[in-house]
Amino acid sequence: MTTLLIDGIGELTTNDPGLGDGLGGRLRDAAVVLENDRVVWVGPSAEAPAADERFDAAGRAVLPGWVDSHTHMVFGGDRTAEFEARMAGEAYAAGGINVTVEATRAASDRRLEANLARLVAEARRGGTTTLETKTGYGLTVADEVRAARIAGAHVDAVTFLGAHVVPAGEDPDVYLDLVTGAMLDAVAPHVSAVDVFCETGAFDEGAARRVLETARAAGLATRVHGNQLGHGPGVRLAVEEGSLSVDHLGFLEDEDFDALAGSWAASTAPSAGTEAARRGTVATVLPACDLSTRMPLAPARRLIDAGAVVAIASNCNPGTSYTTSMSFAVATAVLQMGLTVQEAVRAATLGGAIALGAHENGWRDPRGSAQPRVGVVAPGARADLQLLEAPSVTHLAYRPGVPLTAAVWRAGIRVV
Ligand code: NIG
Hints:
Urease, subunit C, domain 1, binds N-(iminomethyl)-L-glutamic acid, eight-stranded parallel beta sheet, 18 strands, globular
């Protein structure tokens, strides 16, 4: 048993209003004690207990590690040419996914794994301590199982996205039977959730509903890629089917805001910090993707004002958002989407944890181990923290583009 005292913290964001002020549960002149993989004490530096080791934060800001709840990081090749064409005026279309499918199928296990490990390391350097990633660039039974297996060795949550697009040249009905049948059966042991791209050019409402219902019958959680390229049924479907999250959300109408907010209203009355006690569908916005596809920014401000629970994620993938930077997503959410820094930081930490169902103790990682909750710095939570080379989280938006992450602890181990 080893304990580490991190003291001299100028500003500590706990995300627990019971521990500090405001939405972020902020404490000044604070300290944290870690014991093995958990946080065991949080409070004023002056009252901190002794520990085996000490790290002096020297007045800098500490916050939970980022929880990146939406990525597609098992892939081969890249799509530089497509990006250049887009920046020259071409529109993004789902068809580009098949380019990555071809490159992924052609890649060796070792190459896919090395690429994933590179991206995970990059994300860690940027302060990310919890990562979800999806399959969806294999689209055969063997290639989807392979992607899920490789992902499971490196990330915290794996989602099956066989219903990404219909592979080039295949019959849509035959493929849907496969995704909801033999492919799901083969991938299910390796994943905790199933996702579907419900969009023109991918899967329509009927097909998407079938994917979600089959997943639920198999005991898996669900997510939806929705309202990315135009208005559609994605949000309504996700809420009706009790999905953990619906992601993208560039094109929303009044009823979508109502549905997302309403999904949280059914049980405990909302009050700051009590999302953990309730269960609805998280609205996950992907600011880097909106910019990289030159699509409208998701209306995150209005979603929060309407009462939705919002998460911010990177959507790291080679087509629409080739970045692991959660700090960039947070800065964009503040500077372009109208969130306060506190709201954006919360959405990129606790919001992502709720989207993964990882905000409560006992959630299972892909290796089957029960994990302490993430997204907060509070006694009992997993010891996932980042130290900024700045006195406050405000600098994340005040100094956009500057790599401020100075140190990262994941499950109590210093990884950066
Ligand atoms: O979340 N929208 C669908 N899937 C990815 C994009 C995948 C790609 O273009 O390769 C996304 O943006």
